Amino acid sequence: MIKLGEKQILQVVKKVDFGVYLAENQETAETDRVLLPKKQVPADAEIGSEVSAFIYRDSDDRLIATTTTPKIMLGQVAMLHVKEVGKIGAFMDWGLEKDVLLPFREQTRKVRAGEDVLCALYIDKSDRLAVTMNVYEFLRTDSPYVKDDKARGTVYEMSKNFGAFVAVDDIYSGLIPVKELTSKVQIGDDVTVRVTGIKEDGKLDLSLRDKAYLQLDTDGEIILKYMDEHDGVIPFTDKADPQIIKDNMQMSKNQFKRAIGHLMKDGKVKILTDSIERI
């Protein structure tokens, strides 16, 4: 059986001037054969030869084979380059002559020509290959990560209720909960995360923060840098509204208070009535 969107081993069952026809075996009906264009045919191919071929559709919507391995196959997730945006969606470079479509309805945000976008390959209702930015159901849950491991990933969805959904290594399913969103992230951002736990189903719980004792030093450096850029002064204290602290420092109020306390203990800052000054 010819499998759309997959690479499979097929036999050469017929040779023609413009290529060869591939099928499962010599007895396969002509309607279940697929053309491998002449320029793709291996030099030593003969009737009965086996060929590893990827199956997709050409510009006339006919099944066609290629020996080129695309950047993404059915059910896989990969970063693809936006070549252009047309009337029905964006056309993505997946390594084959004919670009693959990212329909507007499958975009979680508007994409622009020239950028790279995380996508999954699927078969649409018209039996055509297309890609989607809704990659949640395509991500794997068998990651090798354990608690406190560091990793990188791509933010592919944002939720006010749940947080930032992340494709770790662009392969594995992870979530940064709302309470762990200490800095502003958006769809498409590449983030460095720490694994805080693994759910029973294999999905990863993530944080943008280091473990508390390591984060103290990091947060302290952020605060001191801010003060260096603002004449040595923070125009609010650790009693300020949490949103003011988050907007200016990209950290929670508790993080800020812990870091300020650590800096005070080291004799680097002092708290005044309405501000904090560097010593």
Structure, explained:
The longest helix has 18 residues, at 212-229. The mean pLDDT is 91. This protein has 279 residues and is mainly beta. The strands form four sheets. A five-stranded antiparallel β-sheet has the order 3-2-1-4-5, with no helix packed on it. Strands 8-7-6-9-10 form a five-stranded antiparallel β-sheet, with no helix packed on it. The protein has a five-stranded mixed β-barrel with strand order 11-12-13-15-14. It contains three helices and 18 strands.
Explain the layout of strands and helices.
Elements: E1 7-16, E2 19-23, E3 34-37, E4 50-57, E5 63-66, E6 77-85, E7 89-93, E8 100-103, E9 116-123, E10 129-132, E11 150-159, E12 163-168, E13 172-177, E14 190-198, E15 204-207, H1 212-229, E16 233-234, H2 242-249, H3 253-265, E17 269-271, E18 276-278
